[in-house]
Specification:
100 residues, mainly alpha, 2 domains, two-stranded antiparallel sheet, extended
Length: 100
């Protein structure tokens, strides 16, 4: 079987932990409960507030979902601040530039 364009171009394999692997399965199960089925062409971030109402339409902004997730996770600061902190900590731990 051929490699995907991304893998062929970079040779990188990005490992996923158990939580990351379980997320698509949990999302599909939630969609099946909510809409009676789950289709691969549906959007992960579907249109509708407070819960997705139309899985064939994407949400128009990530601001509200991001705010909700940050509140529940008790994350303070702006997205860009957190990104810079992560990149700095990766660099200080010796991770190469190609990762960050």
């Amino acid at each position: 079987m051929g490699k995907s364009k991304t893998e062929a171009d970079t040779g990188r394999v990005i490992p996923l932990n158990e939580t990351a692997v379980a997320m698509p399965v949990a999302c599909a199960a939630w969609y099946a409960r909510r809409f009676g089925e789950c289709r691969p062409e549906w959007f992960v971030f579907a249109f509708g507030t407070p819960l997705p109402k139309d899985p064939v339409r994407p949400i128009t902004s990530l601001k509200t979902p991001r705010s909700t997730v940050c509140q529940k996770a008790r994350v303070k600061g702006r997205w860009q601040d957190n990104r810079h902190t992560l990149v700095t900590e990766l660099s200080e731990s010796g991770v190469g530039d190609e990762v960050s």
